[in-house]
Design goal:
265 residues; mainly alpha; two-stranded antiparallel sheet; 11 helices
């Protein structure tokens, strides 16, 4: 049950400015990730990965793949065919696996996360710029999965896959990117939120809390949405957690307003 995990620091409102030490650590971490994988000379055996129902082929160095505990186990033979150096991932989506592979080699995936020194903020590269300025508009923000009726936020799917592959740093990266998109339809947000709930364990509340905070922060938009009404009528754990988060949010506001003047609501 989602009990009080939605604290005042997670609630809707102005985001706290990151401290310099945290920012420096983030930049150092990204710099390290953009370097060749530690201990890798890119001369290890090549592993072929067959992805999706269409069996799209990818190739990667074994030591790079082994940065993921999931693939390290596969390369030790748990899922690997004895002589062919081949891993089968029939349930994975090629577009999402491509993001994972790009991250393992480069420390990021398109569109990359960039630090704007002038504005002292994080932003995405040209993926959000309009096509006439050399970008892809909002095309890079969503993806389509087989069996899902409608687009999903790509960073949400990447987060869920990173959880499965044991890539905590990729989870943090994809979570940060999700907060930088704009102009996403309500239906896409709610569909992605349900996907997040279906594909993350109850012990991992970071992605779920992100969606709860987003809905509360943009509550006027969601309140007017017919899609939101239909989703709430269907129900599910997402909306119980949303109720708890809203109660916590109201409690926090009441606590602040009651300082020095005890009142109840």
């Amino acid at each position: 049950m989602f009990v009080r995990s939605f604290s005042s620091k997670d609630r809707a409102g102005k985001a706290a400015r990151p401290r310099k030490s945290h920012r420096d650590k983030a930049k150092l971490r990204l710099h390290k990730l953009e370097s060749p994988p530690l201990g890798s000379t890119l001369t290890s055996p090549i592993v072929t990965i067959t992805v999706g129902r269409e069996q799209r082929l990818f190739a990667a160095h074994e030591d790079v793949l082994s940065l993921s505990p999931f693939f390290a186990a596969a390369c030790r033979g748990q899922f690997l065919e004895a002589h062919s150096k081949r891993i089968e991932l029939p349930d994975e989506e090629p577009e999402i696996f491509s993001c994972v592979l790009e991250y393992l080699y480069k420390g990021d995936y398109y569109p990359r996360l960039l630090h704007n020194k002038r504005a002292n903020s994080w932003e995405l590269e040209d993926g959000q710029a309009p096509p006439e300025n050399g970008g892809r508009g909002g095309a890079g923000s969503t993806t389509h999965l087989s069996g899902v009726d409608g687009p999903l936020l790509k960073d949400t799917v990447v987060y869920c896959v990173a959880d499965k592959y044991g890539l905590d740093e990729l989870k943090r990266l994809s979570l940060r990117k999700q907060g930088l998109h704009s102009g996403i339809e309500v239906a896409t947000i709610l569909r992605s939120a349900r996907y997040a709930y279906d594909n993350t364990p109850d012990t991992d509340s970071r992605l779920r809390a992100h969606y709860l905070a987003l809905i509360i922060r943009c509550r006027k938009t969601f309140k007017r949405s017919g899609t939101m009404q239909l989703e709430m009528e269907v129900g599910g754990k997402l909306f119980f957690d949303l109720f708890v988060a809203m109660c916590n949010h109201v409690d926090d506001i009441v606590d602040i307003s009651n300082k020095g003047s005890p009142r109840t609501i």
